[in-house]
Amino acid sequence: MSELVPIIQLGNPQLRHKSAFVDNIHDEEIQRLIEDLIATVAQAHGVGIAAPQVAAQKRLFIVASRPNARYPHAPEMAPTAMINPRIVAHSTEVVKGWEGCLSVPGIRGLVPRYQAIAIEYTDRNGKLQKQELTDFVARIFQHEYDHLDGIVFVDRLESTLDMITEQEYQQRIVNNP
Asked: How many helical (H) and strand (E) elements, i.e. helices and strands, does the chain have?
């Protein structure tokens, strides 16, 4: 049975560690972590969450895009566990888009990311998956992937002028697209 786990916040040194590869995907602890992450990201109205955000230093994250209060225009997809993920290729085109983070509450940033990426990851059943992601889902993947290396979205900002509060984001960006 899954349980909600506390999300650590910016300033916690564990958020800045490089995560270890998952050796045994079928380990009960890893499978439980996947379930807990899926429950936690849904409750927090996120579109993704990485294991380091709950102080688990494993190369594992969930991509769970769906419309919600924080991302009303997000595309719908089933929560997907991505274990030991890799970016194997990317577009030359880089686009800026607004990002928030469950570990950095109250702040949004305009972050440059690759528009399209080719990825590989192992799914929770131990099967290698290969996909091409674009736009918002590619952005989620890159954001969560950064967490595995101790990088937070504010590290990617080109300027502090590219940050706004969540309240301003909701008023200016979401309600006046």
From this structure: 3, 8
Tokens read off for 75:
């595309």
**147 membership: H or E segment, kind and range:** helix 135-148
Report pTM. 0.95
CB 70 within 8 A of CB 167: no
For 4, 13, 35, 90, 166, the CA distances from 40, given in Å and listed in that order, are 5, 21, 9, 30, 20
What are the residue ranges spanned by the domains of the chain?
Answer: 13-174
Q: Any idea which residues carry the catalytic annotation?
A: 144
Say which CATH class 13-174 falls into: alpha beta
16-50, pLDDT tens digit by residue? 999 999 999 999 999 999 999 999 999 999 999 99
Q: How would you classify the pairing of strands 104-114 and 94-101? A: antiparallel
